[in-house]
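We examine the record.
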Amino acid sequence: MNYKTIIITALAVALTACGGSKKTQEKDEAMTAVGPAFSADSAFSFCEQQCLFGPRTMNSEAHERCAQWIAGKFRSYGMQVVEQRADLHGYDGTVLRSNNIIASYRPELTERVMLCAHWDSRPWADNDPDEANWHQPVMAANDGASGVAVMLEVARLLADTISQQAPAVGIDFVCFDAEDWGVPQWSDAPDDPQSWALGAQYWAAHPHAEDYKPRYGILLDMVGGQGARFYQEAYSKRYAQAVVARVWQAAQVVGVGSFFPQKDGGMITDDHVPVNEVAGIPCIDIIPYYPDCEASSFGPTWHTVADDMQHIDRQTLQAVGQTLVQVLYTEP
């Protein structure tokens, strides 16, 4: 779907809306798609380039090389980049050489918005249908690389935006590390929610900037999968209901409302939880929900060796990316 089609679709939806008050109708009719066209092909390429390093599992060479690539790409778009390195401990005591990568657009601005995603790979395909794969690493094309890919494409668009059309706020892209070292299903260790999102937990307690308080945050997790639909996650609604409403409305305006149903999803232990509960930043999670998938409510490739580029869908990347553009370029 090209951007012109999105605008036409959005206008058609607004002009044919029915029900509700006259004031609401007038407000809907006045809303139009804004900002540059998000390129799904570019985001797909960014996702693919991360996967070319191999699984970005903690403490691996692929992990370190990919970190350098991510930081370099953000710098190439004029972003100020900070690498927050820390030794964290996995559920089994393994020391994890973690690196949260933070890239800032217009760091001089006080009013800011935060986009975030994790970039590490799951070391174990512990939800794979074949038990022989349970100790194999996950390529993490969707569960990791897709969120970073969408952020990189947004950063590229910002670099190309002329000053008169730029968003009115600064934007921070936070790439969390060590998200996917949670207790594997095959382990005898007790399940521990705190074993997940280790990089986000560290960042929430040690933000990259003093007194860092953006208006809100948006977490992108598994935003490129085939057949993905993004229901409204429960922690997001608890801590940042207004942000949920804003994002789901933006999806309607740009003509991708079918990807963002007005329905409740699950309550997910993810990077946004410490961002909300420790850092005190209202943050939502754009994460898929597959209510009819037997393998996992996160979709059939979640934590399997099939989480690869063959299962990445450009339409899903486009829907999420254009929605973010709408949100950022309408920020007052």
User: Anything to note?
Assistant: DSSP finds nine helices and six strands in the chain.
